[in-house]
């Protein structure tokens, strides 16, 4: 696994989630997935093209998404409010922005598409050419965020 490519996403997710949720974050699980990613809540997808190509899915349970949207909006938000989905996309944007800055500083060049809502129940299945790394983050209140990095296999190979 090329940790020089993966670590910026881990560090950025840790920092942005801790600030956005005002709670320490821990990584509960880190796994390689061969099966298609199944959405667990409100999810945003970001696509990368260039030297690094693939997609990243940021997935959060509905309760945490509502809490996040309420905090960002400064007013109570219901689970049907569009602000909930926009808040998940905004956090995905912040995480990607921090990761991209770090990777660009390391000499990687690629383009990032804006986050879009990932509404499919199931994502694309991994193939021989593509692997998915799934990271689960939790807060002290046991809220879980799932970050799935689906990138070409050579991205995960050892340096």
Which short descriptors sum up this protein?
Chemotaxis protein chec; alpha+beta; disordered C terminus; 159 residues; single chain
Topology:
Layout (H helix, E strand, L loop, with lengths): L2 H19 L4 E8 L8 E9 L3 E7 L1 H12 L8 H24 L4 E3 L3 E2 L12 E9 L5 E9 H4 L3
Antiparallel strand pairs: 1-6, 2-3, 2-4, 2-5, 3-7, 6-7
Structural class: alpha+beta
Query: What integer is the average pLDDT?
Result: 81
Largest sheet: 7 strands, antiparallel
Count all strands and give the number: 7
Report the principal-axis shape: globular
The CATH class, by name, is Alpha Beta
Residue runs with pLDDT of under 50 for 5 or more positions:
155-159
CATH architecture: 3-Layer(aba) Sandwich
Q: What Rg, in angstroms, do the CA atoms define?
A: 15 Å
CATH homologous superfamily heading = CheC-like
The CATH topology assignment is Chemotaxis protein chec
N-to-C SSE string, H for helix and E for strand: HEEEHHEEEEH
Task: Give the N-terminus to C-terminus distance in angstroms.
Answer: 8 Å
Total count of domains:
1
The proportion of strand residues reads 25-35%
3D structure, described in words:
- It is a single chain.
- With about 160 residues, the protein is of the alpha+beta class.
- It has a single domain (about 5-150), classed as Chemotaxis protein chec (3-Layer(aba) Sandwich), CATH 3.40.1550.10.
- The protein has four helices and seven strands.
- Strands 1, 2, 3, 4, 5, 6 and 7 form a seven-stranded antiparallel sheet that branches.
- The protein is globular and about 40 Å long.
- The model is unreliable at about 155-159 (pLDDT under 50).
């Amino acid at each position: 696994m090329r940790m020089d490519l993966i670590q910026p996403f881990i560090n950025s997710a840790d920092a942005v989630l801790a600030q956005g949720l005002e709670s320490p974050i821990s990584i509960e699980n880190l796994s390689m997935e061969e099966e298609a990613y199944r959405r667990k809540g409100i999810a945003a997808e970001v696509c990368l093209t260039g030297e690094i190509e693939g997609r990243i899915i940021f997935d959060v349970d509905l309760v945490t998404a509502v809490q996040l949207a309420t905090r960002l909006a400064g007013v109570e938000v219901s689970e049907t409010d569009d602000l909930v989905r926009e808040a998940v996309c905004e956090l995905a944007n912040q995480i990607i922005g921090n990761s991209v800055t770090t990777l660009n500083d390391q000499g990687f060049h690629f383009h990032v598409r804006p986050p879009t809502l990932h509404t499919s129940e199931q994502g694309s299945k991994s193939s021989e050419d593509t692997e998915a790394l799934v990271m689960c983050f939790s807060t002290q209140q046991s809220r879980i965020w799932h970050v799935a990095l689906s990138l070409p296999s050579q991205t995960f190979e050892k340096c």
